[in-house]
Amino acid sequence: MSRRPLIGVTAYVEPAGWAVWRDVPATLVPQAYVRAVTAAGGRAVVLPPDDADAEVLRVLDGLLLAGGADIGPDRYAATPDPRTESRPDRDAGELALLTAALAADLPVLGVCRGMQLLAVAYGGTLHQHLPDVVGHDGHRPAPGVYGSHPVRFAAGSLAGAVMAGVDRVNSYHHQGVADPGGLAVTGWADDGVVEAVEDPARRFLLGVQWHPENDADPRPVAALVCAASGAASAAPAPARLAAGHRLRQDEA
User: Which pLDDT does position 230 carry in this prediction?
Assistant: First the structure.
């Protein structure tokens, strides 16, 4: 029997409570990520923030950069907006993991914050508060409430192949990608917000702005597990974009 691929899932450190304990600093990640990885045939390994080294990647088959708090604007040379809430420990630990994963060409999926981290790692920048850019709160309607909006993907892209037939996704974020750096933008919301980025020069590197782990269609997570298991050839093979090419919206 073949071994389930091991998928590292980056985690939060937040005050939490259980049983008799209250406001205890805890390493945690929503169970939805673990459930999605398990349902796709993988084994989730929770990775707390740790920038001492990235040796754990030696035993992992894939990396899932989870959602969460904002990325520190210092990481992309911007002045902090008062509404930006960053977690420097996550930034340092996840960028260390991502740098090593890229060097090893390990399959990587970035979800929400994780997609934004991919853009920053590739030299890009972020919008620190999307409502200032798009003029509405539809991407994060209220605390703890997911939005929903139309989406379209670039023909011939990895995102388009993974999400074939999907024209709507969920949403919970107040920041977004302004400049993707060296990544190709391959998905957009109806208001132009970047919804998917990828690096076609790599075995599997995909960022999605929505939360597939909390969606009825978690195909991005399944695609990561498939790539990590070496079974990517069993999935539809999209035509690859030239490395470093950025699609304009009118090319999709």
Answer: 80
The active-site residue out of 174, 195, 211, 226 is 211
pLDDT at site 112: 97
Told to judge if 213 belongs to the known catalytic residues of this protein, a careful annotator would answer yes
Give me the residues paired with residue 196 across strands.
187, 208
Catalytic residue among 94, 112, 173, 226: 112
**DSSP H helices in the chain:** 31-39, 88-104, 113-121, 131-134, 158-162, 219-228
Average pLDDT, integer, range 237-241: 42
SS3 state of residue 133: helix
What is the mean predicted confidence (pLDDT) over 172-198? 97
pLDDT at 1: 56
CA distance 248 to 173: 23
Domains and CATH numbers, the chain: 6-251 (3.40.50.880)
pTM listed for this prediction: 0.90
- Please say if 211 is a catalytic residue: yes
Q: Which two tokens stand for residue 205?
A: 């590197």
Cα distance between residue 198 and residue 204, in whole Å: 8
In whole angstroms, give the CA distance from residue 179 to residue 236. Answer: 29
Q: For 36-45, 115-124, 226-235, which range has the lowest pLDDT when averaged over its residues?
A: 226-235
Select which of 94, 195, 198, 213 is catalytic.
213
Partners of 24 in beta bridges: 16
Give mean pLDDT, residues 149-170: 97
What's the gap between Cα 76 and its chain centre?
A: 17
The tokens describing 31, both together, are 């169970």
Indicate if 226 belongs to the active site: no
If you average pLDDT over every residue of the chain, what do you get? 91
The neighbour count for residue 37, using CB atoms within 10 Å, is: 29
